[in-house]
Amino acid sequence: MSTGDFLNLHPSELKFPFELKKQSSCSLQLTNKTDQYIAFKVKTTNPKKYCVRPNTGIVLPRSVCNVTVTMQAQKEIPSDMQSKDKFLLQAVIAPNGATNKDITADMFNKEEKKVVEEFKLRVVYIPANPPSPVPEESEEGSSPRAEDGSHNSSWPDVATKSVEPKEKLSSESWSLISKLTDEKVAADKQNQKLQHELELLRKEAVKSRSSGFPILYLVLVGIISFVVGYLIKQT
Question: Are the beta carbons of 146 and 138 closer than 8 angstroms?
Fold first, then answer.
């Protein structure tokens, strides 16, 4: 917390959970510890990167005002997760009954006998999802599932389901693959044999055509000769 004559400011740093391509916000709490109206104004060294709501306002006597600072989504992770951005909050005494419409830039000009209270705030980035500490009970628990070295009881379930069926499937798969391989080799041999026989038939057909005496013609001549001889013997 930062303490001034007019306001108490909490926190004293702007801490943004940093995650790529996602907006991040943090809040400031302004506490007026006087009986007067206090006007405030928020400035930053990088106005395009941040949105402050409200960036000006009035804190009523003995009351609290919340300011939300939003960092736009970032495309790159800064070096060492460090930020050079800074914020400045200025506070001055405002006329009694003043409202937000009564605030002007001249109110925050430093002049003689005029007190302008200032708070300088630096920006701090923190991991958006920090790892949660592991309870000691998970390491020394009595559950059989925790004895395999896992810190989370859900991990052994996942490991069991993903490993055991894999081993069984591997053994069955090798047997099936071996059987299919043998059948494929036998089919290839049978196919080669049929192709060889077909090639021989094609060669015989070509020879028959080139000789001028088709096989069918020779067969018919043989049959006719056999019939004639048979008839001669019968007579």
Answer: yes
